[in-house]
Design brief:
Elements lengths: L18 E3 H10 L7 E4 L15 E4 L6 E4 L5 E5 L4 H8 L4 E3 L10 H6 L7 H4 L6 E7 L5 E5 L4 H7 L8 E11 L5 E8 L2 H14 L2 E6 L11 E8 L14 E2 L11 H16 L5 E3 L1 H5 L5 E2 L10 E8 L4 H14 L8 E5 L14 E9 L3 H16 L3 E2 L9 H7 L3 H7 L7 H5 L1 H14 L1
Organism: Mesorhizobium muleiense
GO molecular function: D-lactate dehydrogenase (cytochrome) activity; D-lactate dehydrogenase (NAD+) activity; FAD binding
Family: Belongs to the FAD-binding oxidoreductase/transferase type 4 family.
C-alpha cells in the first residue's frame, strides 16, 4: 500500500502493519476463508483512538468503494458505497436542496465510518445521531453472505452495526435520508457567556430556538473568568448557496514538528484572540457551511501540531441533573494537572433515541477536551476524568478513545455483551480487544472459579 500511514487521527497509537484493499477483503470474505479476529474496516482515519485499528490483524482500506449509486431528489434518500466521503454526499445533494441531517466536526469521514461510530453533530437535540437517518445497509460477513438489514428487516444486525465500530462485518453500502434545507449557508449568532452558570441558563432555550447549538469554552481562564466561553447557534439561511465548495483549504501542516506546538503560552494567546474575534459581534450573520460545521478541515494535517507523540481526546457525557457539578469538576481536574485543551466543546444531547445497540449520545451534556500526549501525566489525568464521569453516571466515548480501562467501558456501555454476541468472528479492533475481550476473559475466569 505504498508509504501511506494507516493511523488513527490522534497519532498516539501505532500505524497499521498490514493493510489490504477493499476488493481483496470482499473476495476473502466471500470465499469463507477469513480467520478469526483477522480483519477490520478502515475508512478515512478520522477516529482519534484505536477503534479503527487492529494491531494483531489486518485493516481494510475502504476508500476505493466510493460510488454514489442512486439519489432520489424528491425524498432525499441517497444510496452509496461505504467508502464515500461525507463531503462527496454534500456536493452531490446540495444542488437539489438537501444536506445530511447530522454531520460531525469533519466532512472527511466515510459513510461506513459515520454509521459504525453513530456520529453526532451540533443538532442532536433535534435530529439525534447519524444512525437515526440510516434507511438500510448491506453487510458482508465471514459466512460469505451479503446481509441486507433495516429497522424492519434483520433488525438485530441493523441495530448492532450502527454504532458497532465495524465489528459486525464489512459495510458495503447504505441508504440514508438527507434533510431538505433552504440553502447550505448558515445564519450564525455568537453569544458570549461569563461562566458555566450562564451557559446552563442559555442552553435549553438555545436548543428550542435553533437547529444547531454548540459552545466553546476557554478552558485556561481562571479567577472570575473561569468557565467563560462562546455559545454558537445556527440555522440554514432562507436565501443562500446551493453549491458545495471544494472540500478542504489551502493551508496544511506539511511535516511533523519535533515538539508540541500547542503549548500553554500558545493556547492562552489563541483563546484570547479567538474569544475576541468570534465574540466581538453578537449580531446574527450569514456564513458558509464549511466554516460553521468544519472549521478545522481548512487546515490539512492539523493534528501534527501536537507533536510526535500525538494527542488524546476525551469526550464524556453526563446526565443533565449533575452537569452543573460535573462539567466544572472535569475542567478543574485538567487545570490542576497543568494540561491545556486546544479544543474544548460543550453541548447538550437531547432525547432522540438512536436505533443503535450501543450509542454514545444520551440525554445530558457532553464535554470534549483534547490534550497533547505527555505520557504518564496525561494518562493519569485521563483516568481521573474517566472516574469523575462514571461516578456521575456518565459515559466515555469509545471512538474518541485510545486508553480507557475495561471497567470504564463496562460502566459506560453495560450492554456491551449484546454486541459481542453479534460480532462477526473475523472482525476485531484494538479497542475491543483491550476492553470487551478482557471483560469477557475476566467473567469467564470468575465463573470457572465458582
Amino acid at each position: 500500500m505504498g508509504q501511506e500511514r494507516f493511523q488513527s487521527f490522534g497519532l498516539a497509537t501505532p500505524p497499521a502493519l498490514d493493510v489490504i484493499p477493499a476488493d481483496d477483503a470482499v473476495a476473502l470474505l466471500k470465499s469463507g476463508k477469513a480467520t478469526r479476529n483477522a480483519l477490520l474496516a478502515y475508512g478515512n482515519g478520522r477516529s482519534y483512538g484505536d477503534s479503527c485499528q487492529n494491531g494483531a490483524g489486518t485493516i481494510i482500506d475502504m476508500r476505493p468503494l466510493n460510488r454514489i449509486r442512486a439519489f432520489n431528489a424528491e425524498t432525499g434518500v441517497i444510496e452509496a458505497e461505504a467508502g464515500v466521503l461525507l463531503s462527496d454526499i454534500i456536493a452531490h445533494a446540495a444542488p437539489y436542496g438537501f444536506f445530511p441531517a447530522v454531520v460531525p466536526g469533519t466532512q472527511f469521514v466515510t459513510l461506513g465510518g459515520a454509521i459504525a461510530n453513530d456520529v453526532h453533530g451540533k443538532n442532536h437535540h433535534r435530529r439525534g445521531t447519524f444512525g437515526c437517518h440510516v434507511e438500510s445497509l448491506t453487510l458482508l460477513r465471514s459466512d460469505g453472505q451479503a446481509h441486507y438489514s433495516s429497522a424492519t428487516e434483520n433488525e438485530r444486525q441493523f441495530a448492532a452495526t450502527i454504532g458497532g465500530m465495524g465489528l459486525t462485518g464489512l459495510i458495503l453500502s447504505a441508504s440514508i435520508r438527507l434533510m431538505r434545507v433552504p440553502s447550505l449557508d448558515i445564519i450564525e449568532k455568537v453569544t458570549p457567556f461569563r461562566d458555566l452558570g450562564e451557559f446552563f441558563e442559555l442552553a435549553e432555550a438555545a436548543d428550542q430556538a435553533n437547529e444547531y447549538v454548540v459552545a466553546w469554552i476557554d478552558q485556561l481562564a481562571g479567577g472570575h473568568s473561569r468557565g467563560r466561553g462562546l455559545l454558537f447557534t445556527g440555522n440554514h439561511a432562507e436565501h443562500g448557496s446551493h453549491v458545495a465548495l471544494r472540500a478542504g483549504g489551502n493551508l496544511s501542516v506539511p511535516f511533523q514538528p519535533p515538539f508540541n506546538v500547542l503549548n500553554r503560552p500558545f493556547l492562552t494567546a489563541f483563546n484570547a484572540a479567538y474569544r475576541w474575534k468570534k465574540g466581538r459581534s453578537t449580531e446574527a450573520r450569514q456564513v458558509g457551511y464549511q466554516g460553521f460545521f468544519f472549521p478545522l478541515d481548512g487546515v490539512g494535517n492539523w493534528n501534527r501540531l501536537y507533536g510526535p507523540n500525538g494527542l488524546f481526546q476525551h469526550q464524556s457525557v453526563m446526565p443533565q441533573d449533575v452537569a452543573r457539578r460535573v462539567v466544572p469538576a472535569l475542567l478543574a481536574a485538567a487545570k490542576r494537572a497543568g494540561q491545556g485543551s486546544f479544543l474544548t466543546v460543550l453541548k447538550r444531547f437531547g432525547g432522540v433515541r438512536s436505533p443503535a445497540l450501543l450509542s454514545f449520545p444520551r440525554p445530558g451534556f457532553t464535554l470534549t477536551l483534547d490534550f497533547p500526549n505527555r505520557g504518564r501525566a496525561t494518562l493519569a489525568l485521563l483516568k481521573e476524568l474517566d472516574q469523575i464521569t462514571v461516578e456521575a453516571g456518565g459515559a466515555v466515548n469509545p471512538y474518541k478513545d485510545a486508553r480507557m480501562g475495561d471497567d470504564v467501558f463496562a460502566a459506560s456501555f453495560p450492554e456491551w455483551q449484546r454486541l459481542e454476541a453479534i460480532r462477526d468472528p473475523a472482525f476485531m479492533s484494538s479497542f475491543w480487544a483491550r476492553t470487551a475481550k478482557r471483560l469477557e476473559a475476566r467473567h469467564g475466569a470468575a465463573e470457572a472459579a465458582e
